[in-house]
Amino acid sequence: MHFHEKPNTYVTNVEIKVSDLQRSLTYYQEIIGFKVLQQQSNRATLTADGKTALLTIVQLQTVEQKTRTTSGLYHFALLLPTRRDLANIITHFRQSGVYFGASDHDVSEALYLHDPDENGIEIYVDRPASDWTWHADQVYMVTEPLNISSILDEANGVWDGLPANTVMGHIHLSVSSLAAAEEFYTKGLGFDIVTRYGKQALFISTGRYHHHIGLNTWYSEGAPKLGENQIGLKTYTLRLDNEVQAHTLKENLRQLGAPVLTIDDGFQTEDPAGNVILLKY
After folding, report:
1. In the chain, N or C terminus with fewer CB closer than 10 Å?
2. Is 169 helix (H, G, I), strand (E, B) or coil?
């Protein structure tokens, strides 16, 4: 899990907009296995360990329907500590009648599903980093069928919600221009490109992780940004190493013409596709 510790830059919290807070709370507690950390009338913060906020859900007062594809959230990804944890949640999903997709990415084994508002979710476990294949500075990633029976061999039948040391492994974003996103995230925020996946997707990280952020234009090339009253991503938070790094990134972003706003413990910016990022240290 050292990929999700300082000095790396990594995602800590994702904030999504939903249409019905109670329905989402039921889903995220009973199906995904979160605990409620804080709750107000129109928002709730969810946790795996009882103290660290991983997901924040916000109910919109007015929901504006999407008439076309927008940029925004492709999925957020919860990283489980062990393969047995993945086996146990597969068993839980099956017993709960939950449909999910599954893929083997060589670096990881992953499940895919959607919440009641169609917000994308990935739940995955990493293979040991020593087993990842690197070609210079590019990591080998594929999308192949997942050997679920092999994973289930490790199940012990115990599912009591998300394990306490679950982390927000990465976020995958739909963007309107891959070239603009690449410039923003590499020159502005200092991420390294670790995989180019065809001409429409890019995976970036720090500290040689397989990816802290995924970026794609599979359905969103030239798409407008998500509306304020549309369901989907509201913000996501990146953890920075220190104030010196924050100062450097602010200067980089200003040179790119990106917005920089001061917030508690850090600053806020917005990528070229309209995704709002909170950067804290």
Report:
1. N
2. strand
| Residue 59 vs residues 25, 45, 137, 165, 228: alpha-carbon distances, Å | 11, 12, 41, 27, 12
Beta strand 201-205 pairing with 134-135? unpaired
CB atoms within 10 A of CB 33: 20
Calpha distance 2→230 (Å, rounded): 35
Q: Using an 8 Å Cβ cutoff, are 255 and 242 in contact?
A: no
Q: What is the pLDDT of residues 149-173, one digit of tens each?
A: 999 999 998 899 999 999 999 999 9
- Cα–Cα dist 269/246, whole Å: 12
**How far apart, in whole angstroms, are the C-alpha atoms of residue 58 and residue 75?**
16
Which token pair is 182? Answer: 């690449």
3-state secondary structure 107-149: CEEEEEEECCCCCEEEEEEECCHHHCCEECCEECCCCECCCHH
- 253 contact partners, CB below 8 Å, separation of at least 6: 188, 189, 259, 260, 269
CB 9 within 8 A of CB 239: yes
Residue 53 sits at the vertex; the CA angle it makes with 82 and 23, to the nearest 5 degrees, is 95
Q: How far apart are CA 29 and CA 106, in angstroms?
A: 30
What is the distance between the alpha carbons of residues 21 and 27, in angstroms, rounded to a whole number?
10
Q: Give the model confidence (pLDDT) of 70-103 as tens digits.
A: 999 999 999 999 999 999 999 999 999 999 999 9
CA proximity to 215, closest of 66, 118, 75, 70: 75
Q: Is the pTM of this model over 0.90?
A: yes
Torsion angle in degrees (nearest 10) through CA of 234, 235, 236, 237:
-150
